[in-house]
Specification:
The chain is of the alpha/beta class. Strands 1-2-4-3-5 form a five-stranded mixed sheet. Strand 1 and strand 2 form a beta hairpin. The longest helix is centred in the C-terminal third of the chain and has 14 residues. The chain is globular and about 40 Å long.
Length: 133
């Protein structure tokens, strides 16, 4: 069954968009983007395609439950500076990604990652991804 998205609620940035964080204040200047996913609703992500070493895997940074994707920004920028492809994103219910009513689970987070990779046309195989968490 498709996941249902709840209405944004009043909460700190760590727990999804809220009225206190309107989308017109979204941090576009940091190269972040928003994408609507069927599995989890709105997802904030940062993706940089490889500039050199095009055959190298895409490095995917996945944050923990306590903090949004910004925890990876400095580390990811060092990998980007090497010309490698980098993706980091807010898990559902964190940062600017939507909070949904479905119970948080590994399968939900995997569905979000899989759909994001598919929409960004990043191959989902062990030779094309380096996942850091």
């Amino acid at each position: 069954r498709p996941a249902r998205r709840s209405e944004p609620r009043e909460a700190p940035m760590f727990f999804g968009p809220s009225e206190s964080l309107p989308l017109d204040e979204f941090p576009h200047d940091q190269g972040d983007a928003l994408m609507k996913l069927h599995s989890t609703g709105l997802t904030r992500y940062h993706y940089t395609r490889a500039r050199v070493n095009d055959g190298w895997p895409t490095t995917v940074f996945i944050h923990g439950i306590s903090f949004p994707m910004d925890v990876w920004r400095d580390c990811a920028s060092k990998v980007e500076a090497q010309g490698r492809a980098v993706l980091y994103y807010d898990l559902t219910g964190r940062g600017w990604s939507h909070q949904i009513t479905e119970k948080m689970s590994l399968s939900l987070f995997l569905a979000q990652l899989t759909e994001l990779l598919e929409k960004l046309r990043i191959a989902l195989n062990p030779d094309s991804l380096d996942i850091v968490s």
